[in-house]
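Bumping with the actual sequence this time:
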Amino acid sequence: MTGADLESVKATIAKLITLANNKGATENESAVALDRAKKLMAKYQLDEASVLREKIKTGVSIEAVKETADTYYSGRFFTWEHSLGWRLAPIFECKAVRGREMRDEDGREYQPMHFVGLPNDMALTLYFFDYCQDEIGRHMESAYPNGGQRVQNSFALGMVSRIVERLDEFYKRYKEEMGANCTDIVIYKEDAIKKTWDREFPFTTLSRTSSRPLSAEYMAGRAAGDRVHLSSNLRQVNGND
């Protein structure tokens, strides 16, 4: 393939991704456009960074999106799901904030997590937020079925701590192995995220995690966090398995 042909493919992918994220497109149109874009990217071994560069070069604006994910453990002392969201989002260059209190179908209160980021980064963030929620909840309930919210939450926070450390380390190595160099487009991504963040959350500051005492339950959670599979799931969500 010549350089001109490759540039044409990049431009086509950029247009397809733009269509896939166009609010005016139907659900089917978005799905078809995204599927075609992914197939072209896989066929010509292009990454999202290349596509973003093409959009920047041709003057197409980069748009960030907002997505909401539910939390499933409610109670005064259950904070681990929010901690997971806050610490997970930056790994994939997204932002996260805890939402207002809501009620589920059974009348129970919960506070969802809101995420802002570029579509590809958002897909990774939401995938791992959902995956880690399931893994942590399963381990927590198995290890301390009658431990109370404080004990269970401490264990879960330990798992969060270790999982995000491992995922951060692995994702950095993964991007290096895949040759993903995005330093030249970071400022464009940050600007797009800031615009969406300021529009969606004009009076909200970024959430922060607080330090926790290293209890026995917390350390047990960190040990459990070492046993959660991450690498195979990262390759799967990127379409490389």
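The tokens above came from a reply further down the thread. Residues 179 and 198 are 32 Å apart (CA to CA).
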